[in-house]
């Protein structure tokens, strides 16, 4: 399966700049709804960031276009064979430009590098674009959860 990039992006370490942008993005009502982000306090987000380097169950990077932070992508709840993919494009002017496919490739490749045999995403039932992107990469609907959420899963092949 081949996907062509429309806009060049690159990833960088998740740093303070990205932390501040994430705070802004995840408090935007539309992004908050699409990402299923719960209410959070700035202090708890800062504490999470301070502990990030010591966590083995978390991979996160900032997504950049030139010198502009535009999104975040990663894997959380990493276990021996499984992990939860997540990501969002915070700069809305980049929505619909194919960047989500590039972000998905980055996380799936990282999951394979970590030796995971499957990955999953928790997606809102009303987030049709995210569901469509996941299906393009071979994710299958696994189950419905309370609160208008579903789990989609991808079984990973070895490299």
Short description:
The chain has 159 residues and is α+β, with helices and mostly antiparallel strands. The chain has 5 helices and 7 strands.
Task: Label this structure with key terms.
single chain; 159 residues; alpha+beta; globular; seven-stranded mixed beta sheet; 5 helices; 7 strands
Question: Can you offer a commentary on this structure?
Answer:
The chain is of the alpha+beta class. The protein has five helices and seven strands; from the N terminus they run βαααβββαβαββ. A seven-stranded mixed beta sheet has the order 1-2-3-4-5-7-6, sandwiched between helices. The two termini are 14 Å apart.
Distance between the termini: 14 Å
Helical amount: 25-40%
Give the SSE string.
EHHHEEEHEHEE
How big is the Rg?
Answer: 15 Å
- The backbone outline, from C-alpha atoms, is globular
The structure class reads alpha+beta
Largest sheet, spatial ordering of strands = 1-2-3-4-5-7-6
The parts where pLDDT drops under 50 for at least 5 residues are none
Query: Tally the helices: what do you get?
Result: 5
Tally of DSSP β-strands: 7
**How is the main sheet built?**
7 strands, mixed
Overall pLDDT:
93
Hey, roughly how much beta strand do the residues contain? 25-35%
């Amino acid at each position: 399966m081949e996907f062509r990039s429309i806009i060049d992006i690159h990833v960088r370490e998740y740093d303070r700049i990205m932390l501040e942008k994430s705070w802004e993005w995840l408090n935007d009502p539309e992004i908050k709804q699409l990402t299923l982000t719960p209410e959070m306090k700035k202090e708890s987000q800062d504490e999470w960031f301070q502990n990030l380097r010591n966590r083995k169950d978390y991979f996160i990077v900032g997504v950049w276009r030139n010198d502009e932070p535009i999104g975040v992508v990663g894997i959380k709840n990493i276990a021996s064979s499984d992990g939860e993919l997540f990501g969002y494009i915070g700069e809305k002017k980049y929505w619909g430009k194919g960047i989500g496919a590039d972000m998905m490739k980055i996380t799936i490749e990282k999951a394979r590098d970590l030796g995971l045999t499957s990955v999953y995403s928790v997606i809102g039932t009303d987030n049709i674009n995210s569901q469509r992107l996941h299906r393009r990469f071979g994710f299958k609907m696994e189950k419905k959860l309370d609160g208008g959420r579903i789990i989609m899963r991808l079984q990973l092949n070895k490299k």
